[in-house]
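Q: I'm building a small set of examples for a reading group on sequence design. Run inverse folding on the following structure and report the sequence directly after it, with nothing in between.
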């Protein structure tokens, strides 16, 4: 039986329960599910103050004392432990490329979740922006040669890499992110028909409440729109440092709610909304929020950042615009006033990811990659 070792920072406690959940953690849980179907044993290797091992039905969790290593350097202790446990037929997966370490005796895969060093640096002088950007480029370039294969969630990373080095080798593979559930065509029609009868337009912004996700930029836009269109109902779903500002801004707006939901509720929540707005300013791959929204039959209105442009063709299956408040207000008003046009774009979005972003297709690509490495 093949064993897969996934190296990542601590996402399980010593009881084997998930203590933090985000995009990468969900990615790891989906890998475990995929490998279990193939009969491969998955080992999660993570830092721990006190060593522990928890054996689950589908995976084993190893908490490793990393000694004097701190921060990102803990990956070296984890890699050394794996070298003592794995054999030549096993595979090591670095759940994020920043955790990649050269292990010559084993086949390794690193996952690159999207360019994250393109966030705005408006507070810096042009010279400092250049120096900061160059330092980040060099740092992330060093991660690319630490593994036998590099899985990217979008083509944006490869195009960035191509500006530095030739990409003739085949070790880089693009595997888009995925959805678990997709609304049926009948349910899609019902969803948009309900809107036409009730004249209530529901919009969701499911993002972490941080500045680089465009929350501060979009707040005044939403405030203007709900004051102009009484039939517009808006949901901000998430958490983060800008939550207090959101609640203070919209405390007297009954059309706006600020809430949270669990990852497994994403499809259900998006299914009750018509528009999904992704106003991110930087650090974005093929966004799970975007894919889930399209799968649920929402019209996506997104900034043209990172891997988002891999999924949306502007005017064909959604709106893709500059991350600018004026642009978002203009396009959102257009979408509100042209409901039939919005419905058509949402349907095209729903159809365009039906296969390429399905969980089954994602699983097939991962299994194929591992089998190719071990042949």
């Amino acid at each position: 039986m093949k064993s897969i070792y996934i190296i990542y920072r601590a996402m399980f406690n010593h009881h084997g329960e998930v203590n933090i959940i985000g995009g990468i953690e969900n990615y790891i849980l989906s890998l475990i599910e995929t490998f279990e179907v193939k009969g491969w044993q998955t080992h999660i290797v993570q830092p721990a103050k006190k060593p522990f091992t928890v054996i689950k039905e589908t995976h084993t969790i190893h908490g490793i004392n990393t000694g004097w290593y701190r921060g990102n350097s803990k990956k070296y202790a984890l890699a050394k432990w794996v070298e003592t446990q794995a054999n030549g037929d096993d595979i090591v997966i670095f759940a994020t490329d920043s955790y990649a370490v050269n292990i010559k005796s084993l086949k390794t895969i690193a996952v690159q979740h999207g360019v994250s060093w393109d966030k705005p640096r408006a507070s810096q002088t042009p010279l400092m922006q250049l120096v900061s950007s160059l330092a980040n480029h060099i740092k992330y370039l060093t991660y690319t040669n630490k593994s036998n294969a590099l899985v990217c969630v979008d083509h944006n990373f490869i195009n960035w890499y191509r500006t530095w080095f030739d990409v003739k080798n085949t070790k880089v593979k693009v595997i888009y992110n995925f959805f678990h559930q997709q609304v049926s065509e009948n349910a899609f029609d019902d969803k948009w028909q309900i809107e036409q009868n009730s004249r209530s337009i529901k919009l969701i912004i499911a993002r972490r409440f941080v500045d680089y996700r465009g929350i501060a930029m979009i707040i005044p836009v939403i405030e203007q729109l709900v004051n102009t269109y009484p039939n517009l109902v808006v949901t901000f779903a998430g958490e983060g440092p800008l939550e207090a500002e959101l609640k203070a801004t919209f405390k007297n707006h009954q059309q706006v709610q600020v809430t949270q939901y669990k990852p497994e509720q994403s499809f259900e929540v998006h299914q009750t909304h018509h528009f999904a707005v992704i106003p991110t300013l930087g650090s974005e791959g093929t966004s799970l929020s975007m894919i889930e929204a399209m799968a649920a039959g929402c019209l996506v209105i997104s900034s043209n950042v990172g891997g988002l442009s891999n999924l949306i063709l502007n005017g064909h299956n959604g709106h893709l615009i500059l991350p600018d408040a004026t642009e978002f207000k203009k396009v959102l008003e257009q979408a509100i006033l042209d409901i039939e046009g919005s419905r058509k774009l949402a349907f095209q979005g729903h159809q365009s990811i039906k296969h390429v972003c399905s969980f089954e297709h994602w699983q097939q690509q991962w299994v194929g990659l591992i089998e190719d490495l071990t042949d």
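The chain has twelve helices and 14 strands.
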